[in-house]
Amino acid sequence: MKYILGRLTQSLLALFTLLTLVFFSAHISGDPMDALLGDFAGEEQAEMLRREYGLDQALPVQFVKYLQRLAVGDLGISISSQRPVSELIAQRIPASLELVFASLLVGLVIAIPLGVYSAVHRGGVFDAFARFIALIGQSIPAFFQGLLMIVVFAIWLDLLPTSGRGGLAHLVMPSIVLGTGMAAGMLRLTRSAMIGTLESDYVKMARLKGLSERTVIWKHAFRNAVIPVFTYSAVLLATLVAGSIVTETVFAWPGLGQLVVDAVLLRDFPLIQGVVLFIGVFVLVTNLLVDLAYLVLDPRLRKG
After folding, report:
1. Closest Cα to residue 181, out of 231, 150, 228, 146?
2. pTM over 0.85
3. Euclidean distance between CA atoms 161 and 150, whole angstroms
4. CA-CA distance, 104 to 236, in Å (whole number)?
């Protein structure tokens, strides 16, 4: 309980710091009335809207009022669309989660078999090939990979749609772009975890008992090596929600990433703060659940 309370305290402090930084950095970026009204609106109209949204007050006063509204669950009204921020976020959550879980599946399907096989045949040709693939996956920028896939599979071969959200075909390219980038790190982690586990005493004992190599690898070695892989996957699941902005922009995927890009371009302060708050809470809660799951999966931590 002491550990859980400590983690909750750290999460709340991190969330408050994030809110503070986002609030003040967004407000010093410029006047949202310039983006909302354009060059043809009069100063009187702009000043009226500033008073309506409380933008004519000092920043510390605006921040305190924002925290007061946040305490009762009010994320505010979007300046650009005149709709509740919570409603706009709720509309985009399904698309973001769909893309994130599909990308995680792609990453696991690629990383786990290659990582395990690479560890079992360490030092061989396949091991060198797998590490090279991991290096390439971590080096290629997401926007370049996305544009390249659009040119090849959407324009040249006419197999997949270029953008938008619809059926499974719309999900293929963005999930592969996010999934392959994630698979690179997971492959390296799976390989290193498996190498350490394969050299352990209980795996050597399982081999001495005459168990088949398949049973030794998947039932004994991988079962223990999967703990750090699980932790990394859960953390990636959270960070992908925040890190999918580039991919969503390239493929015009209507998720939270695309929403926050539009909000930044329009200087829609309530919407920027609402999206960042949701992503921050999602990341912090996921990390907290991972820590708690680690206690369940690894009895040694509970004894400590």
Report:
1. 146
2. no
3. 8
4. 8
